[in-house]
From TrEMBL:
Pfam families: PH_UBFD1_C (PF25343), ubiquitin (PF00240). InterPro entries: UBFD1, UBFD1_C, Ubiquitin-like_dom, Ubiquitin-like_domsf. It comes from the Eukaryota. This is Ubiquitin-like domain-containing protein.
Amino acid sequence: MDYIASEKGDTAENRDPNSVVSNGASKASCIENKSSVDCDKLNSIAPVDSAPCTSVKPQETELCDIPEQIEFTVIFNKNKHDITFAYDATVLELKAHLERICAVPQSAQKLIIKGMAKDDMTLRKAGVVKGGKVMLVGSKMDDILAVKSAPKEILEEKNSSHSSKEPLCMQKIHQKVLDKGIPPDVMAGLKGVKEPLPPTPLSGMLNKHGGKVRLTFKPEQDQLWIGTKERTEKLAMTSIKSITSEPIKEHEEYHIMGLQLGPTEASRYWIYWVPAQYIEAIKDAVLGVWQFF
């Protein structure tokens, strides 16, 4: 009996389903082992072909579509504007951008980079460099309208100056300064001679109030410094629209010189007793780069 019972118990039919299996392991262990084997198989299979897009972030893909940018400074009158713009954009597109910033109409703008830039040129071709300067020459719409609606007395003054052949030195507004005579410390003047600007400032001259004036030229900064006892005014060369000069009667070795700083002749800054030999050099230093306009 013991033998028969023992034989039956060894058969598969009499075994407890939750007991051992033929290899001596439990079903749970078998399942775990199977899972482990499957996992090992999965881990042992290396991905053969990975899609190249999975290694590139969407943001990086978008950056590739952004055009190359260039940073530079636009100088208009006494103001500087830091600009970042597409390097292959046209000068005309830059003008449209500057119209919103500087309030200068596109049609009234001139951009000086390496000479006057043409509208159809790209910034790259025009010679814009990183950290470089671009000069904007033009008048704001308010200034243009102001010229068209200038006060009656300004228009009368302008018309009278054109119609009158009276020399500047004979006009009343200049005589009150000239009547003081030649300043004792003014630089020596030479009639009929043209000389380059000296390395030192031009000094000893007078303004319309009779105060001493000193002119210092800063070509590396594109500036003209007008110094008086009270202050030094640093003017961008591009802010000077024109220069008028005329010899002083009976003292032709000296000139009266007017720097036009605004849209009308009423904005002229008058300087008296300017040595005649430096007049052309002054005009070249201030206006020379714009002569091809």
